[in-house]
């Protein structure tokens, strides 16, 4: 199969060579040299397609621009890398990237008032409205990753010295957003189950008020944390923070785009999502959505006037630095959106597949799951200290033996060399791949004389 993957890339590159001839030609048509170049290119494509069909031929192209390897991870392997699973591009997004990869391709038909969310061709304005509806908020903007959503909100609401409440499992970008704004992070401790509870949030707020004499300026909490993939009671947390009149930012980096998210039902003042992590989009991309109450603040427009030129910049939004996502980044997000809207309706099936694999892993004696179990999400932290790490202790390749064995079976994305605690994500894998994945881990365990309990039940 890898030969066919290689030839597919070569065919795509050969078509791009033809495309380059067309891009260099006059709009009136091809000259004789260009026509000859197209004929030669077509012949080369046909030859590559013959190899592709037959599964033959040697690699003719192994590098892009002489230095970049061809990335065939999604075509030749099953990828369980924890942060890549839900950012895998859809077919339509890959097509959009081909057509709209040029830097300012979104701006072909930009007209006054010269703002990204106002462009109607392509239908970027309507997409912004659809994004807001998707998470049940009033207004949405696309941003260069979830971190820029945190940044926009923090820089709006947080002043120097202001305390900001976050989880003890909060992502580092939440810390950086607060630090940049001059605020001070105050962490809510987690329970023995690695969860943040509303009661713990209330206790932390009271502690901060006693220490500082003022309410926190903002509360930011992950619905699903990146360390364990645990599902936290964000609705309960939002209710608590609102009792103290604290605005609530919902971090949906691992939820928006993979499972249903209703911002208003949760009680969020801000919803932040990650396009490249959970919305099948090119990086960096994300979404910031808010309510009509907060939109005038976080989406304020510029009031600055040049002291020499008297220039003004109309309705450019300060926290967005004008426009945000241009070119293939945004168009990939838009092209994937119909599939993303549909796939959140099948979240229960994704969780079922996650549990099927985790059950198979737990059947290997000595393996544990450190995340909530049964699983409520597809991102999971596991502990194989008592199983695969016991093999690594005497194997000449140490922990890398597991990576070697998985790679032989076409599986990548585990932390290379890690056989103690590590994370994986099964999101988007078909049942065929899930079963293959489960069988592969058990097959490796059996090979190294680890006890595997027989499976009960079916899926």
TrEMBL record:
Gene Ontology terms, MF aspect: Sep-tRNA:Cys-tRNA synthase activity
Keywords, comma-separated and alphabetical: Protein biosynthesis, Pyridoxal phosphate, Transferase
Pfam families: SepSecS
Gene3D superfamilies associated with the record: Aspartate Aminotransferase, domain 1 (3.90.1150.10), Type I PLP-dependent aspartate aminotransferase-like (Major domain) (3.40.640.10)
Residues carrying N6-(pyridoxal phosphate)lysine: 277
Cofactor needs: pyridoxal 5'-phosphate
EC number: 2.5.1.73
InterPro entries tied to this protein: PyrdxlP-dep_Trfase (IPR015424), PyrdxlP-dep_Trfase_major (IPR015421), PyrdxlP-dep_Trfase_small (IPR015422), Sep_Cys-tRNA_synth_arc (IPR013375), SepSecS/SepCysS (IPR008829)
Gene Ontology biological-process annotations: translation
Catalytic activity, as annotated: O-phospho-L-seryl-tRNA(Cys) + hydrogen sulfide + H(+) = L-cysteinyl-tRNA(Cys) + phosphate
Stated role: Converts O-phospho-L-seryl-tRNA(Cys) (Sep-tRNA(Cys)) to L-cysteinyl-tRNA(Cys) (Cys-tRNA(Cys)).
Record-linked HAMAP family: Sep_Cys_tRNA_synth
Complexes and interactors: Homodimer. Interacts with SepRS.
Family to which this protein belongs: Belongs to the SepCysS family.
NCBIfam families: PRK09331.1, SepCysS
Stated name of the protein: O-phospho-L-seryl-tRNA:Cys-tRNA synthase
Biological source species: Methanoculleus thermophilus
């Amino acid at each position: 199969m890898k030969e066919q993957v290689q030839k597919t890339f070569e065919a795509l590159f050969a078509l791009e060579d033809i495309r380059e001839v067309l891009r260099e030609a006059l709009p009136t048509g091809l000259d004789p040299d260009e026509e000859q170049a197209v004929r030669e290119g077509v012949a080369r494509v046909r030859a590559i397609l013959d190899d592709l069909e037959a599964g033959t031929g040697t690699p003719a192209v192994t590098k892009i621009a002489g230095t970049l390897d061809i990335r065939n991870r999604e075509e030749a392997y099953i990828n369980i890398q924890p942060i890549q699973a839900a950012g895998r591009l859809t077919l339509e997004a890959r097509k959009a990237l081909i057509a709209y990869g040029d830097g300012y391709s979104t701006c072909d038909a930009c007209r006054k008032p010269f703002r990204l969310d106002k462009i109607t061709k392509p239908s970027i304005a309507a997409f912004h409205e659809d994004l807001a509806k998707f998470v049940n908020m009033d207004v949405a903007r696309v941003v260069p990753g979830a971190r820029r959503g945190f940044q926009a909100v923090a820089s709006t609401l947080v002043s120097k010295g202001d305390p900001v409440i976050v989880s003890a499992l909060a992502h580092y970008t939440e810390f950086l957003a607060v630090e940049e704004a001059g605020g001070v992070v105050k962490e809510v401790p987690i329970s023995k189950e690695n969860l943040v509870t509303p009661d713990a949030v209330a206790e932390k707020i009271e502690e901060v008020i006693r220490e500082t004499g003022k309410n926190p300026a903002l509360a930011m909490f992950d619905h699903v944390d990146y360390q364990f993939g645990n599902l936290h009671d964000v609705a309960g947390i939002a209710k608590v923070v609102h009792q103290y009149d604290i605005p609530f930012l919902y971090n949906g980096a691992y939820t928006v785009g993979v499972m249903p998210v209703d911002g208003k039902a949760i009680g969020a003042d801000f919803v932040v999502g990650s396009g490249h992590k959970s919305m099948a989009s090119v990086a960096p991309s994300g979404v910031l959505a808010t309510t009509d109450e907060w939109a005038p603040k976080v989406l304020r427009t510029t009031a600055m006037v040049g002291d020499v030129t008297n220039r003004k910049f109309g309705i450019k939004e300060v926290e967005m630095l004008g426009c945000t996502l241009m070119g293939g980044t945004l168009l990939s997000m838009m092209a994937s959106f119909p599939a993303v809207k549909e796939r959140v309706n099948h979240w229960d099936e994704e969780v079922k597949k996650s549990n099927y694999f985790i059950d198979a892993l737990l059947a290997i004696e000595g393996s544990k799951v450190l995340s909530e179990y049964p699983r409520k999400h597809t991102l999971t932290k596991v502990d194989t200290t008592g199983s695969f790490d016991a093999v690594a202790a005497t194997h000449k390749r140490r922990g890398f033996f597991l990576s070697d064995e998985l790679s032989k079976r076409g599986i990548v994305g585990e932390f290379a060399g890690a056989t103690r605690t590590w994370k994986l994500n099964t999101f988007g894998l078909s049942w065929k791949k899930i079963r293959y994945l489960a069988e592969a881990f058990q097959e490796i365990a059996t090979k190294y004389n680890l006890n595997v309990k027989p499976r009960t039940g079916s899926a």
